[in-house]
């Protein structure tokens, strides 16, 4: 089967949604399918290359930061993608289009399907659902929502990465939606007993943005300064400086390690050395880092929201964290 995948951010650009798309494409290519990905270009990335059996076609979108996708860059991706997509369909002749995120990639898939007749399926990751990430998309959806309904309706099949994402989407789009959780590559797992560090190693992995709530990690751990622990925070974003300043404010620079932007392989390596994944997010679809953490044997301390409801069982593999309280931050 020839499959055209459309997504506005694909590794090394973007976060968990792009990583999930990569995993799916890699698995499909490994099974003998012909997979081409239409995605955004940035910096010196090749415009057209083969990677792990996948053809990557990157188009201009004015994107300048790996961890931020503005409305302007997403609109630019759709506009450039219309012409690039038509050329790809003419030459590649895909049997199906798989689009990740109803906005912006879904809009592009809708237009290409309308013009060429190639059907598409849609995977929703939460940020593309009204109310999913209100701190980021509330304004966009206040006027964009009516234009998104045809995207969901025309899709031959709609999947959501978690039951929470599905239920939220059904409030706005009366279409059939099935849940297909993000998976994990178990080839990274080595047999044997999980080792626990004498000094607990805590890890956060994600964008330093309001949605991920990274400041809550520093403030919560400041209440545990008398205990022995170390924390690595993997990622980058507009709140990186705020996090660094907050660490200095509490005099904990020697307890934290800030890596900056890292690759998925780097994240898995860090998980292999860690004990606890700490994710006090304000919203999540089905976080790939959470799936990977469980695969690596980590316990999870996370907000009781979104896709973490599908991952965390307080009786078995983690604890809930109340990330916003009137007087400080406290574990449940």
List keywords for this structure.
alpha/beta; Rossmann fold; 2 domains; seven-stranded mixed beta sheet; 21% strand; globular
Give a verbal description of the structure.
36% of the residues lie in helices and 21% in strands. The protein is of the alpha/beta class and 332 residues long. The chain has two domains: 2-179, Rossmann fold; 186-331, Rossmann fold. The protein has an eight-stranded mixed β-sheet, sandwiched between helices. Helix 10 (308-311) links the parallel strand 13 (299-303) and strand 14 (318-322). Helix 3 packs parallel to helix 4 and helix 6 runs parallel beside helix 7 (240-249). The longest helix has 22 residues, at 71-92. It is globular. The chain starts with a strand and ends with a strand. 45% of the residues are buried. Mean pLDDT is 91; it is low at 325-332.
SSE arrangement, N to C:
EHEEEHEHEHEHEEHEHEHEHEHEE
Q: What is the residue-averaged pLDDT?
A: 91
Cα gyration radius (Å): 20 Å
Count up the helices: 10
N-to-C CA distance:
49 Å
**What percent strand?**
15-25%
| Helix/sheet category | alpha/beta
Side-by-side strand order of the widest sheet? 3-4-2-1-5-6-7-8
List the topology elements.
Blueprint: E1 2-6, H1 16-30, E2 34-40, E3 48-51, E4 54-59, H2 71-92, E5 96-100, H3 102-116, E6 120-124, H4 134-154, E7 157-160, H5 163-170, E8 177-179, E9 201-205, H6 214-222, E10 230-234, H7 240-249, E11 256-260, H8 264-272, E12 276-279, H9 288-295, E13 299-303, H10 308-311, E14 318-322, E15 330-331
